[in-house]
Amino acid sequence: MMSLFTFRIARVGYILVLVLTMQSCSHSLVYSPALNLPSKPLRQNETDIHAALELFPETRPSANNSFTTLGFTSSLGYGFTDKFNMYGRLWITAKSGMIRSGISINGQIIKRIDEDQYLTILPRIGVVMDNNTLQGYGVSVSSIYTSKFTKKLASMVVLDYYGASII
Q1: Does the pLDDT at position 94 exceed 70?
Q2: Does the pLDDT of residue 142 top 80, yes or no?
Q3: Shortest CA distance to 124 belongs to which of 154, 167, 161?
Q4: What letter would DSSP give residue 142?
Q5: 17 has a pLDDT exceeding 50
Q6: CA-CA distance, 69 to 59, in Å (whole number)?
Q7: Tell me, what's the pLDDT at 58?
Q8: What residue ranges define each of the domains in the chain, with the CATH number in brackets?
Q9: In terms of pTM, does the model score above 0.85?
Q10: Distances in Å between the alpha carbon of 23 and those of 147, 153, 163, 165, 166?
């Protein structure tokens, strides 16, 4: 259950993000809201690689006359232990001579409840760039509860907290 203090901080952060986004003099930036998770938590010394084409949301759709932009995303994950994984992620798009990109790093702290259930905490930090100039950064923490019903069917419950700033 979210405390009243945490809710107030989240609300102030959301308002601050809106104000900073509206007052920044940068062009529209792109970010990747996707949460790429392996089908099961990585074990020690396992790796996970993702690469995909993705439609990135624009922070200022009016600047580019579009709500989304097609781009490339890639991530690499490594299991340091059975309880801790780390992922690095890159996304990039080029349109009209403008290169916009971002980088994020996130951890996965895994608490196994039993063989078929686990809780994952995902702290993340990321930056967005416009033509290789740092334009903003953000942090988030997600918690994911996963329970398997059968070998092929599982359910997930995801809770997120985001904060960001445009430089």
Answers
A1: yes
A2: yes
A3: 161
A4: E
A5: no
A6: 11
A7: 77
A8: 4-166 (2.40.160)
A9: no
A10: 43, 46, 17, 11, 9
